[in-house]
Here is the input.
Amino acid sequence: MRIWTEIAYCRDQSNKDLGFYYNEIKDKYKAKEYEEDWLCILDHDARFLNDSWYPIMESHIKKSGDKFKLLTCLTNRVANNDQRVDGKWSEDSNTQHHLFANAIRHNDIIYDMPKRSPISGVLLLFPCQLDVRFRQTGKCLGVDNYFHWDILEKGYKAGLMMNLYVYHWYRFDKDHRNVNHLN
Here is the structure.
């Protein structure tokens, strides 16, 4: 089992359909040779803060991959309160994030992510052969939420890895509430 890590980006600024680009990445791994593998799609403005990210994901897949078909992580700047540490939006760019990422890496549990709390896709980890496609909505926002809901509709579970933290830049130097660039 391998984990393939890709960074999603809307390379054609006239086509902001993130679902299209996610499916393009997903299609690269649909061959039989990837049958046991998982795919990690990371936002272009997100960063792993320690060198344990791969073993952490690998451990969760081996332990719970039969139960969870979508996994995500803790982060600092996303809409989903459950994915933010203590539910707080962090405007802080100091080294506390690095310290926190290292401190939690032994907390090896997965929190079940219900439909009421749609996943923010700063990191999406799922089996390469997952039979769910990303919706092509014509825009960036919401694609991750629909993917989460479609996975739940299929009867699969989605989970939050409580020991993996990814720093999300998310327009740190600009007004994060302005999402015009995404639509």
Strands lie at 3-8, 38-43, 46-48, 68-75, 110-112, 123-127, 157-168. The CA atoms of residues 88 and 175 lie 17 Å apart. Helices lie at 18-27, 53-64, 96-103, 143-153. The chain has a mean pLDDT of 80.
